[in-house]
Amino acid sequence: MALTTRARFVTILTATTALVLSGCAATPEPTAPPVPEPTSTTERAVPLPVGEPVAIVTGLTTPWSLVFLGETALVSSRDTGDIFELVGDTMRLVGTVPGVVHQGESGLLGLAIDDSERLYTYSTSSSDNRIQRFTITGEPGSLGLGAGEVILDGIPFAGFHDGGRIAFGPDGMLYATTGDAGVRPASQDMNSLGGKILRMTADGGIPDDNPFPGSHVYTLGHRNPQGIAWDAEGRLFASEFGQDTWDELNIITAGSNYGWPEVEGIAGNPTFVDPVQQWNPDTASPSGITIVDGTVFIANLKGQRVRTVPVANPSTETTFFEGSFGRIRDVAYAPDGSLWFLTSNTDTYGTPRAGDDRIMRVELGS
Question: Which of 288, 295, 286 is nearest to 365 (CA)?
């Protein structure tokens, strides 16, 4: 699929920047209160990786998101717009999302599945990032990509800071992380969908109980969040790329402001919500996350590790597999009770090894 030229890309980005800067508005007060902290201190299992990971499949190119349709794993390929299903130890093409434009870090990013087994995608077009919904045809082993529709568009795009993670919450709503697309003021601008966590219905509509009336915005002040997951108490956790100082793990509450670009990391400023943990980007660059019982599992790109954080004490951590598999893009809890993770060494930032990229599987135990 042809890419836009560099000149066209710069022109669009410049126009987007001007629009955002001219449309900045004061942040309205949210109408919904923040989600309360859990009042229970019930003991939870804290699962951790046990033993050595094994490769399920190798030879992938720029995999970005890993989700399960029943027991079937689906994987997005960032640069091509392709979606694959795992059949045995090979990947089979399900279909290609139309209109995907890859440049830099953009392309086909997050995937999500709803209760009706429809597929949602977050991807970059020639003019924006958008969320689409597709029917899935056929049976496992012969799946196809059916009719699709755009449910939300107009999300700022660039060759970097595109966010891109989507997931359904325990409330049945679809959440999406968006980056600032290199335009820092967008994160504080309520007229922009950039630098936010968005919340919407399965049709892309605005829920009546969203914190800002008439807006998809759930939280603001984000730079480039790429991971979201919920714990057993219904708390939403999000991972976020910082700039040069601190990457973050945040607990997300409706209507809150997480500070970018005014602050980065733990700032102690009462105007903004501080992260529950922060890391130097050299050891982190956190992307996809999943929560299993009492453990947050975080895929780390530059840090080349799986980081685990207990939800009962999210300021602590344990790390696994540092440097063993290179960059790690996404983690997922598999139907068989194991942890799967995607490597990301073919994304131009990594150094591909023999067999890269791959899906790895590791057992979990307490």
Answer: 295
SS3 labels along 223-234: CCEEEEEECCCC
Q: Which of 53, 81, 61, 181 is nearest to 129 (CA)?
A: 181
Q: Which amino acid is at 191?
A: N
- Distance (Å, whole) CA 286 – CA 238: 10
Q: What is the DSSP letter of 14?
A: H
Q: Are 295 and 311 in contact (CB under 8 A)?
A: yes
Cα 315 to Cα 317: distance, rounded to the nearest angstrom: 7
Q: Which CATH number fits domain 53-365: 3.40.50.720, 3.40.30.10, 2.120.10.30, 2.40.10.340?
A: 2.120.10.30
- 134 and 121 in contact (C-beta within 8 Å)? yes
Over residues 331-362, the pLDDT tens digits come to 999 999 999 999 999 999 999 999 999 999 99
Q: How many CB atoms lie within 10 A of CB 99?
A: 16
Contact 238, 198 (CB under 8 A): no
pTM value is 0.89
pLDDT confidence of 24, banded at 50, 70, 90? very low
Q: Are 308 and 296 in contact (CB under 8 A)?
A: yes
Report phi then psi at 12, rounded to 5.
-65, -45
Read off the tokens for 310: 């207990």
- DSSP one-letter string for 166-233: EEE-TTS-EEEE---TT-GGGGG-TT--TTEEEEE-TTSPPPTT-SSTT--EEEE--S-EEEEEE-TT
| Strand partners for 176 | 166, 198
C-alpha–C-alpha distance, residues 224 and 326, integer Å:
21
C-alpha distances (whole Å) from 364 to each of 238, 247, 318, 321, 339 are 22, 26, 14, 14, 7
